[in-house]
User: Which sequence fits this backbone?
């Protein structure tokens, strides 16, 4: 059982949803990222996803693309990602890495999974890894005892939902809409429909991501989801802040609001 | 997923789950169409009356004098409507789009040839068309941007990343993830997730099928070597495919060596890359130690891509095809030579295959017959070539 499994069990016992924050390693800077992680943890985030910045992020909208570019220009590499993961797990929250597949393959599939475990990480979210291409990865996650977290979409049909969730650990990442990451003013109604369809085939916790940025949205999702994932909203605040200090204040404020939201849904 | 999606350890699908439904739908539509005589007849008729198929073969006798005396034959895909082989795939996929009931196509383009071909097919078949093109390329290929607009397409300059073909593909995939219900992504090469590498090959294999018959009729035997330029690799697969079982026929792909593979400024993905995953498929990739894609460099916008089709990776690994790099300067010398000896201005992409023929011809000697896929014409490259050769405009 990973720390993420424990966190998802705890929030279920508390009859609320988990708040899960995403931040790319090395953003807004190496040290700024560590401070942001601490601020998020202090503000009541239950779990943190550390993004592995990638040159070709086809699932990401302009905000995360920009953050990834800044991080890569700063020279972020695999060792930095693992070090950042360690920073997150040291704060006491559950932490996972979110990465496109090629950096894992390049690093070495078994070594990547083991480095996640060695740095206290609970799992890895792989948004472009299909279950058909997952044999080596799943074997590695079992050996290293970490959660393989897959993303499902509103277009995923029921039989495929069953197949994908049967390989998943930790939680099922439900994409709230057809599209890329980014903030949206409303959360698509596809989300509740997708969550019920996942419930019909799986007992795993379900976290909803894509487009969530406000306490109200978190509250409405928390009514039926086990976790609420927020990424671009935090990154936007950091990108737009006049100084790193003000950016950290802003994400801390938003995280506190969202932490209230995930407790108000039911 | 069917095993048809893999070429040895290459190929497959590395895409967001949101696209799986659309890829399955496309795979089924393609397989059904390939076994449907009505579809095949409709496409063949379009090729006869619109594309201008079969394309002819021209023997390049004066050019051959510079290639050690080997006989050199050019498969004239440059004479197709829109000026390159790209139309073969585009018409096939546009017909499939209509069969799937979709009304909108999106496409990526580097040099603009695939974008122009896509805009052409959209105009012919009454489909909406959006073409993603790196901002850098919209400047390098302004004429093709105007052509696409004249054909009724919307051209979206892509400002992310390196602002070239790689980033245009990223942006097209983001559009597709968002609008997949009514949109077909008309990918222009034999890369991307299954079924694209197989499907695009199937639409281009007519090149090799025609050429095999034409060469037998012309020379009474199969050619000794077949040469084609390789960026993503669609024209090369198109002419190679019919000859793969003919083990005595050498298949040679010419990659873009840019300033030289040793300088790191090149687009020779098989020659200078390593296995990895890019744009939904496993193949050779230009990447760094952390799996980040490295920017490619080539004088030819159409070859300026840090990936390559997975079937080429496979053909390379099993030794059925060989891949060599041709530097910018060698390609431009061959560009000039063909223009002046044969009265044919080739695309700069194609000039890489011609430069390869000058080398391979000398290696094989005067008894050899070489078949080159003349994949595109050079009208679009006049400005680049004029600058390169110092011709005032």
Assistant:
């Amino acid at each position: 059982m990973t720390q993420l499994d424990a966190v998802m069990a705890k929030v279920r016992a508390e009859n609320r949803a988990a708040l899960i924050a995403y931040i790319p390693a090395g953003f807004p800077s190496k040290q700024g990222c560590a401070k942001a992680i601490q601020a998020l943890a202090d503000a009541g985030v239950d779990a943190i996803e550390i993004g592995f910045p990638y040159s070709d992020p086809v699932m990401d909208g302009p905000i995360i693309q920009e953050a990834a570019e800044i991080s890569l220009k700063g020279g972020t590499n695999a060792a930095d990602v693992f070090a950042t993961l360690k920073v997150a797990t040291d704060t006491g929250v559950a932490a996972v890495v979110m990465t496109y597949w090629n950096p894992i393959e390049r690093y070495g599939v078994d070594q990547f999974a083991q480095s996640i475990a060695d740095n206290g990480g609970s799992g890895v979210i792989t948004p472009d890894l299909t279950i058909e291409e997952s044999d080596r990865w799943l074997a590695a996650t079992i050996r290293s005892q970490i959660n393989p977290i897959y993303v499902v979409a509103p277009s995923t049909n029921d039989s495929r939902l069953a197949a994908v969730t049967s390989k998943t650990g930790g939680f099922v990442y439900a994409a709230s809409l057809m599209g890329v990451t980014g903030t949206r003013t409303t959360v698509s109604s596809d989300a509740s429909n997708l969550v019920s369809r996942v419930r019909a085939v799986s007992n795993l916790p379900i976290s909803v991501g894509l487009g969530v940025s406000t306490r109200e949205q978190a509250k409405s999702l928390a009514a039926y989801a086990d976790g609420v994932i927020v990424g671009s909203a935090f990154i936007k605040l950091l990108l737009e802040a006049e100084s790193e200090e003000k950016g950290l204040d802003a994400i801390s404020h938003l995280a506190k609001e969202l932490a209230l939201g995930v407790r108000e849904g039911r | 997923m069917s095993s048809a999606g893999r070429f040895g350890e290459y190929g497959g699908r590395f895409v967001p789950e949101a696209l799986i439904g659309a890829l399955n739908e496309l795979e089924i539509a393609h397989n059904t169409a390939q076994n449907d005589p009505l579809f095949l007849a409709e496409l063949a008729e379009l090729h006869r009356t619109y594309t201008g198929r079969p394309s002819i073969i021209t023997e390049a006798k004066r050019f051959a004098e510079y290639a050690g005396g080997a006989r050199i034959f050019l498969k004239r895909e440059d004479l197709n409507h829109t000026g390159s082989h790209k139309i073969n795939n585009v018409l096939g996929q546009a017909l499939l789009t209509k069969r799937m009931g979709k009304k909108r196509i999106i496409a990526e383009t580097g040099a603009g040839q695939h974008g122009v071909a896509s805009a052409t097919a959209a105009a012919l078949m009454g489909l909406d068309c959006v073409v993603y093109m790196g901002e850098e390329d919209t400047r390098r290929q302004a004429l093709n941007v105007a052509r696409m607009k004249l054909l009724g397409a919307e051209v979206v300059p892509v400002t992310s990343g390196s602002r070239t073909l790689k980033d245009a593909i990223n942006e097209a995939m983001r559009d597709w993830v968002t609008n997949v219900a009514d949109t077909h992504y008309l990918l222009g090469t034999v890369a991307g997730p299954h079924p694209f590498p197989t499907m695009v090959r199937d639409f281009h294999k007519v090149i090799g099928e025609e050429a095999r018959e034409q060469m037998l009729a012309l020379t009474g035997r199969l050619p000794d070597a077949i040469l084609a330029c390789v960026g993503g690799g669609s024209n090369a697969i198109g002419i190679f495919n019919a000859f793969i079982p003919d083990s005595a026929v050498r298949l040679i792909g010419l990659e873009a060596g840019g300033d030289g593979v040793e300088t790191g400024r090149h687009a020779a993905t098989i020659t200078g890359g390593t296995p990895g995953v890019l744009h939904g498929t496993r193949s050779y990739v230009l990447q760094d130690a952390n799996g980040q894609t490295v920017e490619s460099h080539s004088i030819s916008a159409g070859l300026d891509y840090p990936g390559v089709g997975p079937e080429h990776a496979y053909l390379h690994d099993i030794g059925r095809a060989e891949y060599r790099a041709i530097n910018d300067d060698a390609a431009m010398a061959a560009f000039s030579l063909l223009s002046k000896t044969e009265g044919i201005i080739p695309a700069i992409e194609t000039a890489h295959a011609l430069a390869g023929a000058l080398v391979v011809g000398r290696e094989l000697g005067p008894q050899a017959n070489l078949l080159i896929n003349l994949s595109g014409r050079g009208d679009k490259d006049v400005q680049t070539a004029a600058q390169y050769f110092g011709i005032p405009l």
In short: The first strand of chain A starts at residue 18 and ends at 24. Chain A has one domain: 3-264.
